[in-house]
Amino acid sequence: MVSVFVPEGLQKAAEESKSLSLQDFCSKLSDLRAEEGDGKTHLHPVLDLLVSAEMTDMEWASYASPMHFSEFQPVQHIIHCDDEFSVVISCWSPGQKIPPHTVGRGRVMWLKVLHGNLLFQEYSPGLFPWESDVERQTELGEGSASFLEECGVRMHDVKNLSETEPAVSIQVFSPPLTSFTFHSEKGTERRDLPWLVGQADATKGSEAFSSSRAVRTAGRWFLSFRGLQSLLNEEFSRPEVTPTVISTLLSKAVFNPQEWRDRLSLTATPGGSSQAGSAWPKHILVAQEKKYSIILSFWGNSPERSVAIEGGTGMSWTLVLEGELEERAVNIGAEGPQVVRSSVLKEESCSFLSREETSGAAGADIIEHSHSSETPCVSLHVYHPPLPEAWMTG
Hints:
Layout (H helix, E strand, L loop, with lengths): L3 E2 L4 H7 L5 H15 L6 H10 L4 H7 L11 E7 L4 E7 L4 E6 L5 E8 L2 E6 L10 E7 L4 E4 L7 E5 L6 E8 L4 E6 L2 E6 L3 E2 L13 H6 L4 E3 L1 H12 L6 H10 E3 L1 H9 L16 E7 L4 E7 L2 E10 L3 E8 L2 E9 L2 E10 L4 E5 L11 E8 L3 E8 L4 H5 L1
Parallel strand pairs: 13-14, 14-15
Antiparallel strand pairs: 1-8, 2-3, 3-10, 4-9, 4-11, 5-8, 5-10, 6-7, 6-9, 11-12, 16-17, 17-24, 18-23, 19-22, 19-24, 20-21, 20-23
């Protein structure tokens, strides 16, 4: 039988104790593993930590903003993983549930409901999973923390009880869980849990995330700009830069719109107007490293055409975060300028251009980006080698 353990007075104890951010919670989990050192997971210390775990405002924006919910199924992401534990944030739209499943013999789970109310259902043993009946139901209320002892071998599911309100939960698995396997009349479905990278440093001390892992996955990755910078640092540290790897990283990245809007708001004066007046585009330096630059460009909602022209800097990648952007690559030859590529980059599309001709792009001496629409545009640019600092002020 699955044991749902909610100690008496648990919520009161949590209120009286100092709450932990998710970053601190994950860090203390790793410390707990180091202190134990015997390969065994002590159940109550983990539960005690989970009782105190709360998300900061930044973590709510990073892990459970509207963009982290889906109308089709609960959205689950790993935010921490080490040899002993994995920590998963689950975002439940109204009425959503995870299909019946087990998490593997010998594995245990802790669950805390941060928002809303969940229903935990345990199924009786049956010849086939879809023939089993619900044997036990337990409501998990907002703020409750539970230890689910035998979910590794007993079929169970979890559901958002409300048909009108979303729910958010934290799940801790030991040994760590990185995928679910569901069984149905149609067969077996294996669903990998994607990682949220670089959002609020909750992954400090956890299994290292690599750009090669992002390239291999078939799904999208939620990234902060700081997370992108970490991945690019790894890629540009290699002896040779592989353009397709960086293109894939950018194509699979999903950024929080609030993060780039906050960047734009920082350029405004106290009176509310931009430092650059009404001139578009506005460029914001996100990162300036030895081997690359990251630039955010904001293009206003005006029918008047705004243009940015850059000399070829070696390699450059452009990702359109919002709106549409026109791009032209021009070569300067003996017969004058020659357009070698012209395209309209739609939202979420990524392009790569190189000064030298490569297998992935024609050579370009000049890159021209332009925008003329009543719909604003936001674009992210990566340059290798980095742009000179004078470019930002010139």
